[in-house]
Design a protein that fits this description.
Chain lengths: ~140, ~300
């Protein structure tokens, strides 16, 4: 399964991929995380942390790199879509064919950078949050 | 020259009573010999065959000959001599055989009935000895595997005009750099991930002829002064060369054995390096490095041409 990020905005359905043959289409720097949202305090006498978690966010930071210049428009549409609260489908293309429905991790902004001047390639860095209560895992083969 | 990987002599008799025993083979009467390029077009190989009796009157022993490993579609001539040494009376022997044959697409061929043919009028029991000698496989047409073999130093031309005298031939190198697309978890190169990351095609070689025109070739963007005594000087450092400063249609053409040519051609190029060196009692040599340039972004940098005879 090819790695991609698919979404549907006001313009229509779109898919972002670097278009390279697997495994060069893989996401880069895939780093899952978990965030407990709510106040916490450390008891002075015991040193024990107490947490009043209102919710748990399953999040991930990763990059989709080697994007050709022809994908700039789709990348910017995805950024706007996520900033507006929209969701996207993240297809990891990993050994388990993991696919997630995600939205933007609160407090973050997608970052599109021009990363390869020689080959005219771009990198989109994202931090996303799973819409389901499950970790965002991705395991590529070596 | 064609390399003959192997060939097979098969001897057989037209009666069970007569056998042909080849000294270099087993009792099955099958002899396999290896012929290499030395046996083609002039090379020979001597073989000895012993026919042992008895045979019945009026019968013959024959040898057919098959080949493998020849150039598909090639045309050849098989030739051999044979000598008979005693043993049987009334023997007739076809002493010299020359026969053309062609090779099929799989590189095999057969020359029918060109081997030893012994005929005898009466019953004999004594052994007969036949020497096969001067066996040759002669290539009549340029075989396919030498079709694209180029030979000699070749000619350097600029815009279709020969540079002049050169020495030692030229070297062509596209200087192509191939890189793999990187990815997380990349431990080894993978098929279909390679991309050409750089092309810096060059031609390198030494020339003897070095006229004022050639000096200006070597100094792209440079200038000349004088009519009889001519001075060539370099372009001002920092100056970007203009389109007209480049050489067009630079080609190095090498003749092939079959009358065709292999040509390495740069539509646009310039001399990026040159140096001169004189020697005692020998010609002054100018070493050149000519590098290809794309006429525009996306244009082809070089061609490797195969020109028909």
């Amino acid at each position: 399964m090819a790695t991609s990020i698919a979404f549907t905005d006001g313009t229509g359905a779109a898919t972002l991929t670097n278009g390279l043959t697997a495994p060069a289409d893989r996401f880069g720097n895939w780093t899952p995380d978990i965030a407990l949202i709510g106040p916490s305090a450390v008891a002075t006498g015991t040193g024990v942390t107490s947490m009043w978690a209102f919710r748990t966010d399953y999040v991930v930071s990763f990059e989709l790199d080697k994007l050709p210049a022809s994908t700039q428009a789709v990348a910017l549409r995805l950024k706007a879509h996520l900033l507006g609260g929209g969701t996207c489908t993240v297809t990891t293309g990993d050994t388990s064919d993991n696919t997630y429905t995600c939205r933007l991790r609160p407090g973050t902004v997608p970052d599109l950078t021009f990363s390869d001047r020689k080959r005219l390639r771009y990198t989109l860095a994202l931090e996303l949050k799973n819409t389901s209560a499950a970790p965002l895992l991705c395991e590529y083969s070596l | 020259m064609t390399t003959v990987a192997s060939d097979t002599f098969e001897s057989y008799a037209n009666t069970a009573a007569m056998t042909a025993v080849w000294q270099t083979t087993d009792d099955a009467g099958i002899m396999t010999v290896s012929l290499d390029g030395a046996h083609v077009s002039g090379g020979t190989k001597a073989l000895k065959a012993v026919f042992s009796g008895p045979i019945l009157g009026g019968q013959t022993a024959q040898v057919s000959r098959s080949f493998t490993g020849l150039t598909p579609g090639g045309a050849y001539t098989f030739r051999r001599r044979a000598y008979y040494i005693g043993g049987w009376s009334g023997v007739t022997l076809n002493t010299l055989v020359t026969e053309d044959f062609s090779v099929t697409a799989d590189g095999s061929g057969t020359v029918a009935d060109v081997g030893v043919s012994l005929a005898h009028g009466g019953d004999v029991t004594a052994d007969a000895t036949v020497w096969l000698d001067d066996i040759e496989i002669i290539s009549e047409a340029p075989p396919g595997n030498t079709l694209y073999v180029a030979y000699d130093a070749g000619v350097l031309t600029i815009g279709g005009t020969a540079w002049g005298l050169t020495r030692g031939g030229f070297a062509y190198d596209p200087q192509r750099t191939v890189e793999q697309w990187p990815y997380d978890g990349n431990l080894y190169p993978v098929v279909a991930l390679d991309a050409v990351a750089a092309l810096q095609p060059i031609l390198k070689g030494d020339v003897l002829t070095f006229s004022p025109t050639h000096a200006l070739y070597a100094e792209p963007g440079g200038s000349q002064s004088g009519a009889v005594d001519i001075s060539t000087t370099h372009v001002a450092p920092g100056t970007t060369l203009s389109e007209g400063d480049y050489l067009t249609n630079v080609a190095w053409t090498v003749p092939r054995f079959d009358g065709g040519y292999i040509r390495y051609r740069f539509p646009s190029a310039l001399v990026t390096r040159y140096s001169a060196k004189s020697q005692d009692n020998d010609e002054h040599l100018v070493s050149l490095e000519i590098a290809a340039r794309a006429a525009t972004v996306g244009a082809v940098l070089y061609y490797v041409d195969h020109l028909a005879p």
